[in-house]
Every structure is written in C-alpha cells, then in structure tokens.
C-alpha cells in the first residue's frame, strides 16, 4: 500500500507542480511587464512635466533648474533643439544614443512617447516629450533611466518569487503527505480486511469511512464479510445436517443388516429387519434426490417446463390422492377454487409444491382439525392459501423455515419424517415460476402458507 501512497502522492505533486509553475510563470511575467510599464509611464510623466515648465518659461535658469532636479534622482534628462542638438543634460549621455533615438522620432504626440523599453539588452529606458514655443516645435525633452536599476528591482522580485516557490513546494509536499495518508489509510484498512477474508477469517470490522466512494467500498467489503460469514456458517450447518441425516439411516441399515445375517433368528424377524433396511435406504434415496434438486437450483440448471394449467382440476387430482391420508388421521381437508382459474406452471413441480405443503400440514395437525386450500384472484395474481389448525410455528423460527435442513423440531424426531429440505425446495420452485411464498403462524393456532403466482389470461 506504500506503493499506491507514493504513486498517488507523486502524481498529485507533479500535477500541482506543473500548475503552480505555469501560474508562477504568468504571474512573474505579468508583474515584470507591469513594473516596466509603470517605470516608462513615470518616466514619460516626468518628461511631460519638464516640457510644461519649458513652455511656460524657456530660459537658461529653467534649463538649469530641470537639470539640477534630475541630477538628484535616479533618472536623467536631456533637452535638445528641433535638430537634435543637446542644449542641457543632467548626465553625460553618449551622443550616439541621442542620435539613434532621434531617428525614431517622426512626429511624437504632445503627450510623449516611449523610445526604448528593452530593459534586458539596452542600457537605458527612454521616453521623449516635444515642447513648443510660440506654437512651433522648439525641441525635445528626453528622459532616461538606467536598465540596471530595473534589473536590480526585477532581481529582488525574482528572489521573492524563488522564496515563495520553495515555500509553496514545501507546503505542497506536507499537504500531499497528509492527503495521501488520509486517502490511503482507508485503502490500507480495506486491504487488510480483504487479506483476512482471503485467509477465511470473516470477522472483519471496518469503521465508517464516510459517504463517498471509499465509504461505499468499505461498506461493500463489510457486507461481503458478513455474507461470507453467513455462508460459512450455513455451509457448516449444512454439512453437519447432511452428516446427521445420513448417519442415522446408515446406522440403522448397518445394525439391522448385521442382525439379519445371524442364523439364529426367525424368518419373520429377518423380514422385519429387511423392511427397516428398505425403509432407511428409501429415506437415503429421498435425501439424495432432494440434495440433487437443490444442487441443480444452485447451478441454475433446474428446468421448469411451463404449460397452461387449470388449477381447480390439479387440486381435485391432488385431493383424490392425498385425502385417504387425511381421513386416516381424522383430519378434514377442504379445497375451494374456481374452475376458471388458470396458471402457467410446470405441472409436476407445482404438484410437488402442493403435496409438500399439504404433507407438512398433515404432520403437524391434530385429529379432528381442518386443513383448507383456498384460491383467490387478487389484482391479476393468483393467491393460494394452505391453512391448517396444527401446532403452529414459534415466532423466532418463522424467518428460517425455508432454510435447508432447518426444522422447528430441533430433536429431529423420526416420527415426523422428512429431510428438512422440503420447504427449501418449495421456495426454489415457486421462485423459479416467478412467484413468491410467505408464511404466517402462531403457536397452537395453526399455520398459513401463501403462494402468489401470475394468472394465465389467455
């Protein structure tokens, strides 16, 4: 994770560094150009002031006064006639410079003009302002400022920029380190959590990491850990349940097979033991069949062959087959369904669902109670209710009754039979048909299963 921290920090640093460099470059150039422009404007303003004085009083004393003023400042003045001859100067300025500058003067505006602004290569910055005596151009006022003064100013400005750049880089590094730590710490925690998950340790707890994408990822890992832990527990319970369900009949088979092999038992006893062996083998066969069905559901290879079914006719056929078992237990069975209700379903699988639910109702019903199958059409859906008046299911068991090998009877009484997979298979079949199944129950008041499936309108 240090690698990603360094990578993130490096990329952020490079990005900010490039942005800051570009901004510093434009800011630096902008300040320099502004400062040079200010110097030129100041220089031209001084020249215009001298021009105004000369136009009011053009005499020797005025010229000397102007020269004296500029000799005490960091600028120089040169005053020439209209032909370029120097008539006053505050410093010794090379005549060649004056001649070169005079060539640039064609018709300078009264407000003056900039003659030289190249502060990097030239010796002076310069401006010129024409002055007029009696409405005639009588000469020019040249103002000069040595560029080394400007360069010193810019050099100090560069030092400030350099110091500001170093401080910016320092603060940027500190900020990036803090941000990298803030950003990568959740990733490090999630990496450690996923390592624990890969080792099979699902007791992962991640703190709340906020409402952003990282927070959602952390919640996803937490949920994954919870689901994997649940699946692990379910798998362990599943394997334990299979072991229990197989161990008991196998113990019976082995035990009674050993007894049947004895020579000192009667044929009647041997037949009894062989019948028990047959029943237990049949029990194992039923368990394997149920497991095979569930395995096909898990692999999504369980096929449903739907066709249009008259639900009333199916229920009447089921009634004919199962009613003797209800009569034998002295339990009343009633079915109420309109002959005009049709559904799209696999007849074999849907019949398996109804048989399973009715068989459960019979197992947990007392004598002289009643079991009712009622079919209603509600909002274009078919609702099938299988209601008994049996023992009922404790409230704490209701959320789990569709689980594999889950039994309300924790003792796994053999008197009630079954593999504990029936309701799990029922739920899978109903959902494969695009329907839902739910249950309501209370102790000693019976249980009601509700199946909701779409109606066939054709």
Description:
This protein is an alpha+beta fold and 458 residues long. It has three domains: 2-153, Beta-Lactamase; 213-298, Signal transduction histidine kinase, dimerisation/phosphotransfer (DHp) domain (Helix Hairpins, Orthogonal Bundle), CATH 1.10.287; 307-454, Histidine kinase-like ATPase, C-terminal domain (Heat Shock Protein 90, 2-Layer Sandwich), CATH 3.30.565. Helices cover 55% and strands 18% of the residues. The chain has nine helices and twelve strands. It has helices at residues 2-56, 60-71, 95-103, 147-198, 213-260, 267-298, 311-328, 347-363, 422-432, and strands at 75-81, 86-89, 113-116, 124-133, 136-146, 307-310, 332-336, 342-345, 370-378, 381-387, 436-442, 446-454. The strands form three sheets. The protein has a five-stranded antiparallel sheet with strand order 2-1-5-4-3. Strands 7-9-10-12-11 form a five-stranded mixed sheet, with helices on one face. Strand 1 (75-81) and strand 2 (86-89) form a beta hairpin. Helix 1 runs antiparallel to helix 4 and helix 8 runs antiparallel to helix 9 (422-432). It is rod-shaped. The mean pLDDT is 81. Keywords: ATP-binding, Cell membrane, Kinase, Membrane, Nucleotide-binding, Phosphoprotein, Transferase, Transmembrane, Transmembrane helix, Two-component regulatory system. This is histidine kinase. Residues 181-233 form the HAMP domain.
What layout of secondary structure does this protein have?
Blueprint lengths: L1 H55 L3 H12 L3 E7 L4 E4 L5 H9 L9 E4 L7 E10 L2 E11 H52 L14 H48 L6 H32 L8 E4 H18 L3 E5 L5 E4 L1 H17 L6 E9 L2 E7 L34 H11 L3 E7 L3 E9 L4
Parallel strand pairs: 7-9
Antiparallel strand pairs: 1-2, 1-5, 3-4, 4-5, 6-8, 9-10, 10-12, 11-12
Helix pairs in contact: 1-4, 4-5, 5-6, 6-9, 7-8, 8-9
């Amino acid at each position: 994770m240090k690698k990603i921290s360094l990578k993130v920090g490096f990329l952020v640093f490079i990005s900010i560094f490039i942005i800051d460099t570009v901004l510093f470059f434009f800011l630096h150039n902008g300040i320099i150009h502004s400062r040079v422009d200010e110097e030129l404007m100041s220089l031209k303003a001084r020249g215009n002031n001298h021009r105004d004085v000369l136009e009011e009083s053009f005499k020797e004393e005025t010229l000397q006064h102007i020269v004296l003023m500029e000799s005490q400042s960091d600028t120089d003045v040169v005053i020439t006639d209209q032909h370029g001859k120097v008539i006053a100067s505050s410093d010794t300025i090379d005549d060649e410079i004056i001649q070169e500058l005079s060539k640039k003067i064609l018709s300078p505006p009264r407000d003056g003009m900039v003659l030289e602004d190249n502060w990097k290569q030239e010796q002076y910055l310069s401006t010129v302002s024409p002055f007029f005596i009696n409405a005639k151009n009588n000469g020019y006022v040249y103002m000069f400022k040595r560029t080394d003064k400007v360069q010193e100013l810019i050099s100090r400005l560069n030092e400030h920029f350099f110091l500001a750049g170093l401080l910016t880089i320092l603060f940027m590094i500190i900020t990036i380190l803090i941000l990298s730590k803030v950003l990568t710490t959740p990733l490090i925690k999630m990496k450690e959590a996923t390592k624990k998950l890969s080792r099979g340790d699902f007791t992962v707890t991640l703190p709340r990491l906020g409402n952003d994408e990282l927070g959602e990822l952390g919640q996803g890992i937490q949920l994954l850990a919870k689901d994997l832990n649940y699946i692990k527990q379910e798998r362990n319970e599943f394997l334990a349940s299979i072991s229990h369900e197989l161990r008991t009949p196998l113990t019976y088979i082995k035990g009674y097979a050993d007894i049947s092999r004895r020579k000192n038992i009667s044929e009647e006893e041997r037949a009894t033991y062989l019948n028990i062996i047959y029943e237990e083998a049949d029990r194992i066969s039923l368990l394997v069949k149920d497991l095979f069905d569930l395995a096909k559901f898990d692999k999504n290879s369980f096929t449903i062959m739907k066709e249009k079914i008259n639900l009333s006719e199916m229920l009447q056929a089921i009634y004919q087959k199962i009613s003797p078992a209800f009569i034998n237990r002295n339990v009343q069975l009633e079915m109420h369904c309109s002959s005009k209700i049709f559904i799209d379903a696999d007849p074999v699988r849907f019949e398996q669902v109804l048989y399973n639910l009715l068989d459960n109702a019979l197992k947990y019903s007392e004598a002289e109670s009643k079991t009712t199958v009622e079919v209603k059409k509600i909002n274009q859906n078919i609702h099938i209710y299988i209601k008994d008046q049996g023992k009922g299911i404790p409230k704490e068991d209701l959320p789990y009754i569709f689980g594999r090998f889950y039994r309300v009877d924790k003792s796994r009484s053999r008197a009630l039979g079954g593999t504990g997979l029936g309701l799990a298979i029922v739920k899978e079949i109903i959902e494969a048909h695009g329907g839902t199944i739910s249950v309501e129950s209370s102790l000693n008041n019976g249980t009601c299963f509700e199946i909701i499936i779409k109606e066939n309108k054709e």
